[in-house]
What does this fold into?
Amino acid sequence: MTVAVFVSGRADLGPLGPVLARLAEESPELRVLTGVGFDEVSARSALVDAGVDRATVLAVGPRLEGDTPSDAARTGAALSTGVAAALVDAEVLVVLGDRWELPWVVMPAVLAQVPVVHLHGGEVTEGAIDERVRHAVSKLSDLHCVASADARDRLVQMGEDPTAVHVTGAPGLDRLVGVTPLTDGEIEAALEVKVRRPLALFTYHPVTTVTVEEMVRGALDALAGTAEAAGTVILTHPGPDPGGHAVRDALLAAVETFPNVVAVPALGSRYPRVLAACDVVVGNSSSGIIEAASADVPAVDVGARQAGRLRAATVVHVEDGRENVSAGIRKVLEGPRPHHTVNPYGDGHAAARIAELIVQVRRPAGPKRFHDLDARTSRLGGTEGDDR
It folds into this structure.
């Protein structure tokens, strides 16, 4: 069978990597469709870096060159044309999460009756446009591999067939099972920075419902102040989203200001071992909420972007602003280091479950029926025992 998997960039390649590797082992024809964050050459290199060397890589859309919503819309339209051509003989399309490109990616599959498997549906991020995108993609999808029981419940509440919703766990956690932290010397050699403790990892993405420049500056000032006094901060670039240029500019300005701050576009396959070596994760990325707990690393979640998302006890939420972020950093660094954290997103063995479900899907996609909750069916006049 031919399995098509859409990978926008390094941000979703990380959690998709274990699934792609498992699919390659299952020996279907694996086709990776690259989005706005990758060209074909960089995608192929990143896949090999992630341990996936048995896949056909197709660049189905242009990179996002501008920084406005209209730039994104034009890029999405071109992306949709490329996806339609790439799905001609595909049995299934696999997508992850809530990237803004996904409506343009998924709709050609719906029109061609190619079943869509959606990973990480049913979650909540109230502070970003991702919330709308994620739920819209869920309604266009045929099979759901969710990370937690609360996500499953939301999809069933949205009318999805309970038999099509599977709690598999978050595949990104598979990379952290038994991971060995990099030593300070290994980090220094890889990133060309002197490591002083505490070591912090900072990632801040555009909050696509508001202007974020001031928020970024406040969070960076708080964390860079901590770094200047005692430790080292590793900054990673934001993804290819509208508003990302402003965030990246703020990151690069911090590098110029503080000697113990280093910026890298992405950590790639080094991410699990760098994460495990850190003392704290700061920012508004889902990685601080989903992955960090599995590495027993406390996280300071900043602002509204991840509002409503399920989180482990190791995650401290603070509002935007220098003083708030500083207080959150002090709280986690002054407390005991977490140990054997229970991660609500799974056990680190999701990829095998997901791949097994994917290879059972076959084209064409069948009709979808809205499944009412029992109580609502009763209120609307459904008969007792109605199995919808």
Q: What stands out?
A: Residues 213 and 249 are 9 Å apart (CA to CA).
